[in-house]
Design a protein that fits this description.
The protein is of the alpha+beta class. 43% of the residues lie in helices and 12% in strands. It contains 15 helices and 8 strands. The strands form 2 sheets. The chain has a 6-stranded antiparallel sheet with strand order 3-4-8-7-6-5. Strands 1-2 form a two-stranded antiparallel sheet. The chain is elongated and about 75 Å long.
Length: 379
């Protein structure tokens, strides 16, 4: 087996089995040679990474090398991991998000302050990593404001332009139980707090009076905002999304009955095998579902990971609660708490009933506006 970086890279496309390369990288890291592993990753990326469809040998070996340095390397070798991440992330923001999730799940926050020190050769590529790391740590309950170096970077004036700067540097009471992945060198695991449907949430109150009539008020911008948490299901997998808003003629009545007369595609009578059921829930339950949808993705993609998953879950709830798109985080949080939240379910042909089904609704404080978001995906 050749052991020089240049020779490995040159011969990679001829290999029918790349296990030997992966095993060698693990062995070299076990011997303390993190520099070799980083050099290999950088050389692989520069040779094959720019291809529209990189060869399978590269995809397999590079991910293994990337995980080795971010998950398994000793703290003293973190600089080599940052060198590789900076090289890759300078042109691929998705890899920065992935790296931040790997690092935050595998290392003490105190070790990660090194990523926020200035002077790295690839500092430009590390800026996105830093932005994501901050919120990956927040999601894990870390008090980033107490971590010297991280707090200074996260609160600096130049960070204000970044999309993630809209989020607070602490976990909201709504973010009670974020489902976060755990990683090893050879794989990962996470839970899915959605579909196929179960009825473990308390049933929605029946309500008084007759079912209100409804007029649709959906606008393209409102639909896009409500769907932000699940947009990756449609863009990168096989997902379908329905996001709609309605003005109601009166408050009260059964939410389940109201949903059944709204002419929703997801509850279309011709494909319906059971009447819809609605279940009252609290904002943290809705956020947990939307965060998992955004961060872990659908059937054929890996989602946005923790930091942007957090952002998109909040933006979807902002849209569902009718908050202006220019609203501050604090204003959105108030809007969310003012609304009544429901999940609903029905066995219809629209929902795939595999592992990715979501159906939530938000009712305004006066009971006269309803927003609905449904999504499904399949492998």
């Amino acid at each position: 087996m050749v052991e020089k970086v240049e020779e490995i890279v040159a011969l990679l496309s001829d290999l029918n089995d790349v296990n030997g390369v992966r095993d060698m990288a693990e062995q070299r890291l076990a011997e303390g040679d993190a520099a070799f592993v980083a050099d290999l990753g950088v050389a692989l990326f520069r040779t094959y990474g720019a291809a529209k469809r990189p060869i399978w040998q590269y995809r397999s070996v590079f991910d293994s090398v990337f995980r080795l340095l971010t998950v398994a390397a000793d703290a003293e070798h973190l600089g080599h991991a940052l060198r590789l991440i900076g090289t890759v992330a300078s042109g691929d923001r998705k890899m920065a998000r992935y790296a931040a999730s790997l690092l935050a799940s595998s290392r003490p926050a105190s070790d990660l302050t090194r990523a926020f020190a200035g002077g790295q050769v690839h500092a430009g590529g590390l800026e996105e990593l830093r932005a994501c790391l901050v919120h990956e740590l927040v999601l894990r309950g870390e008090a980033v404001g107490d971590l010297q170096g991280i707090a200074q970077w996260a609160t600096s004036r130049h960070r204000g332009h970044h999309p993630l700067s809209w989020l607070p540097l602490h976990r909201s009471s709504i973010e009670q139980s974020p489902d976060l992945p755990s990683y090893s060198v050879h794989g990962s695991s996470y839970s899915l707090p959605f579909g196929p449907f179960d009825t473990g949430v308390g049933p929605a109150p029946a309500g008084d009076g007759e079912t209100a009539s409804a007029v649709e008020t959906t606008t393209p911008s409102a639909a896009a905002e409500m769907a932000r948490a699940v947009a990756n299901w449609a863009e990168e997998s096989n997902g379908r999304i329905e996001a709609r808003t309605f003005a109601l003629s009166a408050a009260g009545g059964s939410i389940a009955k109201l949903l059944s007369v709204l002419d929703l595609d997801c509850l279309a009578p011709e494909g319906q095998r059971s009447a819809p059921s609605a279940f009252a829930c609290a904002p943290p339950q809705v956020w947990q579902v939307l965060f998992a949808a955004a961060s872990t993705g659908g059937a054929y993609n890996n989602g946005l990971h923790g930091a942007y998953g957090r952002l998109e879950a909040w933006k979807s709830m902002a849209g569902l609660s009718g908050a202006p798109q220019t609203a501050t985080f604090a204003d959105v949080e108030r809007h969310i708490h003012d609304h009544r939240w429901f999940t609903f379910s029905a066995t219809t042909k629209w929902f795939e009933q595999v592992a990715w089904d979501i159906a939530v609704a938000a009712l305004s404080p006066d009971g006269r506006s309803l927003a609905v978001l449904a999504a499904t995906d399949t492998d």
